[in-house]
């Protein structure tokens, strides 16, 4: 059994939707689970609650092509990623799981800064990766029904349209859009999950989920619902199966990350080209640059560290002064279509390297360039191997500068790993091992750093200096693709910006 998510039906409906032939109706609150849709759909819909209206005149909980053609191309559900690709991701996941299994994916929840002040909503990454749907109070269930790529049913529980509630919260997409835009085979009101979920999971032999079903030994709200609907059905972790898919980036994902890296790199180069007195001003400049360059803003809270604060790996207070005789270390990157880029650059606040700054910077830069060159499938490398090679290279560079390295001194000077995976998250695919052999499509960071504390074990000229140089890199078969190359890092190029 396969309904609307089949490739042929998906393409037919998308063609009608994005040519304007398919008109979306505005659904009122519904308490009925809608059946799987047939492969051929009517070109218009109307409902008792309201007359059908063009999609371009509706409000959705996130951009769609009809309302935001400046953000999304025809056929895309999120920037750069098509509905077809989301279907293929679900199909690939189901092929990796046994028949009659089900994947259970709860959305992220709205989190609050204080009182009624909420943070900007950010969808749970695996939910977003498999659905493209970016609203809270949602649950996706992907039911694997057979061995073929189209043998699955995509259920999406979400909020129905509710004009009174949306007046306060902003627009929701509703059940109709869950079918017609996000291509769910079956949809239902999330408020009716207890009544509907038993039928959805009927006959399932195993549930794959990373949802928190118990906390401190007590079932969570979702855990109670799942227990009531699927008592005695075993559960297993989902993360490793999704990680295997997410770790290898598609061409569309790489394009998004390259765009984020390109514009973020240009923003950082622009920051290096002018003097700064305060960390907060530099952080604000980068945020403005990301936004005006077509990105979605900071991908993460940036590090803008002057002087010895660079020794604090995740210093994010960003409220200090910047002195001309100090280094500025900035770890910052922009986001595009929820894909991020991760960059660190270090430069002298004065625009001119002192001899000690130049020597320490060159030691890190030489190791970083060499390690980036290893990010190719033909090198048969892992991130752990690259880390070991980088550590050895920096040890040799530091010894040449007069560092006496015995015992755990390198662990003090270089306390973090050389890299991590990058993609939808800054530290992407959590749990995916750094001992995996790097293949074409893996995207990683290469970020060696040296942080010299005020300690008489180390040469006096370098004490208090912190240098980190980081690029996001996509592994190629024979050559790496540096996603962030527009952020200059050669000493001559940095100094030329202010000369």
From TrEMBL:
<keyword id="KW-0479">Metal-binding</keyword>
<dbReference type="GO" id="GO:0006508">
    <property type="term" value="P:proteolysis"/>
</dbReference>
<feature type="domain" description="Aminopeptidase P N-terminal">
    <location>
        <begin position="81"/>
        <end position="214"/>
    </location>
</feature>
<keyword id="KW-0378">Hydrolase</keyword>
<dbReference type="InterPro" id="IPR052433">
    <property type="entry name" value="X-Pro_dipept-like"/>
</dbReference>
<protein>
    <recommendedName>
        <fullName>Xaa-Pro aminopeptidase</fullName>
        <ecNumber>3.4.11.9</ecNumber>
    </recommendedName>
</protein>
<dbReference type="InterPro" id="IPR000994">
    <property type="entry name" value="Pept_M24"/>
</dbReference>
<dbReference type="InterPro" id="IPR007865">
    <property type="entry name" value="Aminopep_P_N"/>
</dbReference>
<keyword id="KW-0464">Manganese</keyword>
<keyword id="KW-0645">Protease</keyword>
<dbReference type="Pfam" id="PF05195">
    <property type="entry name" value="AMP_N"/>
</dbReference>
<dbReference type="InterPro" id="IPR036005">
    <property type="entry name" value="Creatinase/aminopeptidase-like"/>
</dbReference>
<keyword id="KW-0031">Aminopeptidase</keyword>
<comment type="similarity">
    <text>Belongs to the peptidase M24B family.</text>
</comment>
<comment type="function">
    <text>Catalyzes the removal of a penultimate prolyl residue from the N-termini of peptides.</text>
</comment>
<dbReference type="InterPro" id="IPR029149">
    <property type="entry name" value="Creatin/AminoP/Spt16_N"/>
</dbReference>
<dbReference type="GO" id="GO:0005739">
    <property type="term" value="C:mitochondrion"/>
</dbReference>
<dbReference type="GO" id="GO:0070006">
    <property type="term" value="F:metalloaminopeptidase activity"/>
</dbReference>
<dbReference type="GO" id="GO:0030145">
    <property type="term" value="F:manganese ion binding"/>
</dbReference>
<dbReference type="Pfam" id="PF00557">
    <property type="entry name" value="Peptidase_M24"/>
</dbReference>
<keyword id="KW-0482">Metalloprotease</keyword>
């Amino acid at each position: 059994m396969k309904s609307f998510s089949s490739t042929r039906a998906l393409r037919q409906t998308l063609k009608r939707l994005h040519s304007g032939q398919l008109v979306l109706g505005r659904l009122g609150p519904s308490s009925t689970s809608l059946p799987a849709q047939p492969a051929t759909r009517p070109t218009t819909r109307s409902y008792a609650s309201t007359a059908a209206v063009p999609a371009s005149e509706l409000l959705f909980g996130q951009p769609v092509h009809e309302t935001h053609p400046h953000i999304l191309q025809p056929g895309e559900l999120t920037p750069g990623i098509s509905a077809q690709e989301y279907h293929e991701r679900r199909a690939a996941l189901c092929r990796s799981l046994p028949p009659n299994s089900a994947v259970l994916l709860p959305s992220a929840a709205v989190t609050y800064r204080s009182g009624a002040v909420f943070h900007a909503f950010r969808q749970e990454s695996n939910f977003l990766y498999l659905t493209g749907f970016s609203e809270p109070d949602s649950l996706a269930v992907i039911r694997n029904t057979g061995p073929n790529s189209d043998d699955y049913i995509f259920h999406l529980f979400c909020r129905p349209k509710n004009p009174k509630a949306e007046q306060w919260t902003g627009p929701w997409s509703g059940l109709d859009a869950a079918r017609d835009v996000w291509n769910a085979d079956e949809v239902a009101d999330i408020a009716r999950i207890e009544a509907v979920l038993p039928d959805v999971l009927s006959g399932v032999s195993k549930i794959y989920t990373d949802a928190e079903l118990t906390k401190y030994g007590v079932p969570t709200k979702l855990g109670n619902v799942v227990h009531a609907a699927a008592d005695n059905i075993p559960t297993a972790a989902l993360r490793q199966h999704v990680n295997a898919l997410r770790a290898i980036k598609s061409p569309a994902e790489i394009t998004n990350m390259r765009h984020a890296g390109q514009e973020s790199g240009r923003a950082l180069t622009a920051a290096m080209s002018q003097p700064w007195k305060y960390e907060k001003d530099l952080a604000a400049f980068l945020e403005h640059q990301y936004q005006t360059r077509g990105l979605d803003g900071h991908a993460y809270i940036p590090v803008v560290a002057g002087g010895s604060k660079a020794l604090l790996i995740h210093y994010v207070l960003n409220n200090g002064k910047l002195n001309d005789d100090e280094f500025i270390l900035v770890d910052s990157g922009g986001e595009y279509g929820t894909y991020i880029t991760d960059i660190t650059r270090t430069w002298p606040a004065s625009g001119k390297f002192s001899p000690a700054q130049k020597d320490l910077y060159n030691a890190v830069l030489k190791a970083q360039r060499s390690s980036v060159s290893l990010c190719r499938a033909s090198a048969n490398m892992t991130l752990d191997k690259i880390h070991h090679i980088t550590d050895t290279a920096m040890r040799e560079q530091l010894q040449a500068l007069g560092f006496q390295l015995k015992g755990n001194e390198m662990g003090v000077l270089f306390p973090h790993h050389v890299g991590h995976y990058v993609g939808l998250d800054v530290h992407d695919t959590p749990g995916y091992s750094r001992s995996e052999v790097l293949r074409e499509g893996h995207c990683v960071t290469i970020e060696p750093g040296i942080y010299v504390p005020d300690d008489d074990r180390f040469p006096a000229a370098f004490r208090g200096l912190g240098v980190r140089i980081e690029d996001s890199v996509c592994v190629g078969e024979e050559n790496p693709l540096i996603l962030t190359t527009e952020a200059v890092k050669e000493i001559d190029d940095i100094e030329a910006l202010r000369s």
